[in-house]
């Protein structure tokens, strides 16, 4: 049995937003969207549960570990 936590990777969710912030080299700023990114309600860190904040950071850390970043031309 794996000890790794499985996070919900739904587009706009905490894990997705963390990985996107890392991809675009934005600073950590926990948040997520209720639905589609930028087209639904943005939930700021003050309204997130500890589990949602953990998922955001896990997404950020996951992308940082792979070293994938947007290359701006």
In short:
The protein has 73 residues and is mostly helical. The protein has helices spanning 14-23, 50-66; strands at residues 31-33, 42-44. The protein has one domain (14-66).
Task: Provide mean pLDDT, rounded.
Answer: 93
Shape: globular
Low-confidence parts: none
Largest sheet at a glance?
Answer: 2 strands, antiparallel
Terminal-residue CA separation? 44 Å
Number of domains: 1
Helix content, binned percent: 25-40%
SSE order, as H and E?
A: HEEH
Give me the number of helical elements: 2
Strand content: 5-15%
What structural class results from the helix and strand content?
mainly alpha
DSSP E strands, number:
2
Strand order, largest beta sheet: 1-2
| Rg from alpha-carbon coordinates | 12 Å
